[in-house]
Amino acid sequence: MNLGRMGQDTTDQKLPNGITTEVGAEELSDIPDYSGAPYVVLGDNVPDFTEEEKKTTEAFTYYGDLDDLGRCTLTFANVCPQTQPTEKRGEIGQVRPSGWHTVKYNDLIDGNYLYNRCHLIGYQLTGENANEKNLITGTRYLNVEGMLPFEDMVDAYVDETGNHVLYRVRPIFSGDDLVARGVHMEAWSVEDAGQGICFDVFCYNVQPGIVIDYVTGDSQRE
User: Fold this and answer.
1) Is residue 168 classed as helix, strand or coil in its secondary structure?
2) CB-count burial class (<10 Å; 0-12, 13-18, 19+) for 221
3) Which pLDDT does position 201 carry in this prediction?
4) What pLDDT score does 8 carry?
5) Most buried one in 44, 90, 108, 197, CB count within 10 A?
6) Can you tell me the distance from the alpha carbon of 49 to that of 12, in angstroms, rounded to the nearest whole number?
């Protein structure tokens, strides 16, 4: 299992001093198997940011380069009013993330389509839309049941307080799979030292009733 290459080129993404893109990789073997819930809390539910990072009040966004298999790697931001979008989201249909298939299961999935182009960092947080470094092949279940509640939580907190939220999302792959097994999401509200937002979770890239071949993205009914 790997997360692609960490420590990407940041020449076009200016990061504040003390912010690192060198992070440890979660082992898939350390994450419980999917058992019916869209996500699982990792450890003590406290993200693994450094003490210096936890005090950062400078806005930034970072989208790691794709790896040799064309897979997304690491996304990291300090979400605040400055990073939030000021215009409506545009089209993203031109982006084909690794493992992408257009497939429908009309009677099993709300919205019909198995896969969405899932933003690792939601558009509502940083306004980044058709960026191939920020879009993975994710199930409807991952997108709506797994990730969206956490994105909405952070978005509402920033809207209410104007504070900063460190926000890091990494897709987790097994071997050379083209489709991620899920995403590791971490967040920490800076000004109140995690009192408002603090989580460390893994969201499963599964779809109830569907069997997914993560190597290729092929699927079939269970």
Assistant:
1) strand
2) exposed
3) 97
4) 35
5) 197
6) 23
Containing 155, the helix (H) or strand (E) segment is helix 148-161
The two structure tokens encoding residue 196: 């408002």
* pTM metric for this prediction: 0.92
Give the total number of structural domains in the chain.
1
State residue 192's pLDDT score.
98
Residue 145 lies in a domain: yes
Structure token digits, residue 218: 């092929």
* pLDDT at 23 (0 to 100): 72
- 21 lies in some domain: no
Q: Do residues 173 and 2 touch, judged by C-beta distance below 8 A?
A: yes
Closest C-alpha to 114, from 93, 100, 129? 100
Q: What's the pLDDT at 36? A: 97
- Contacts (Cβ under 8 Å, ≥6 apart) of 34: 204, 206
Query: Quick check: is 93 in a domain?
Result: no
Residue partners of 178: CB distance under 8 A and separation at least 6: 69, 70, 71, 98, 99, 137, 214, 215, 216, 217
Question: Which pLDDT score, from 0 to 100, does residue 170 have?
Answer: 96
